[in-house]
Amino acid sequence: MDVIILCTGYSFGFPFIKPPGLIPVTEDNQVDLYKLILPPSPSAKGLAVIGLVQPIGSVSPIAEMQARWVTSILAKGLNSLPSETKMREEIAYRRERMRRQYFESAKHTIQILWKEPSFALRLLFGPNVPYIYRLQGPNRWGDAHNAIEGVPYRVKTPLKQRFKNVKKYIRNIFFYFK
């Protein structure tokens, strides 16, 4: 790895990457990246775009997962990348699937298919915990759903009052310091 470029902003483009157009961005903010990370072009070998996602929650945990995946490709060689043709087929398939599942918007897209509406609301309005990214996928954790459901309890428990008789406790503290 030669260079890491960290960027933030409301619109995106890649004018600093040479040659121009290595990562083309359309006017409707569409970018053709394999797994939303890698340009399929052979001339872009070793180039990865981390964090170019529009989730409902935080980008940071997703960017971490993307960075881990890219690291496994670049450093460890655990994953073998498919050919450019296969990457482009996967990009086209994903774009079509997204077109059917979401509505088009200049801003973020909103998923309209939920299997468990109450759990979906917890994911949407609750804290973004790492277990969310273990619900599905290659490193799926069978207990992730339960762990997410238990987050409010685990957050509130340490904040509860620990003493039944606070007045007695305070009186004992003052007695100790006399």
Automatic annotation (TrEMBL):
Stored Pfam families: FMO-like (PF00743)
Name under which the protein is recorded: Flavin-containing monooxygenase
Cofactor: FAD
Alphabetic keyword roster: FAD, Flavoprotein, Monooxygenase, Oxidoreductase
Xref: SUPFAM superfamilies: FAD/NAD(P)-binding domain
Superkingdom: Eukaryota
Database matches in InterPro entries: FAD/NAD-bd_sf, Flavin_mOase-like, FMO-like
EC number: 1.-.-.-
Enzyme class, UniProt record, top EC level: oxidoreductase
Family: Belongs to the FMO family.
GO MF annotation list: flavin adenine dinucleotide binding; N,N-dimethylaniline monooxygenase activity; NADP binding
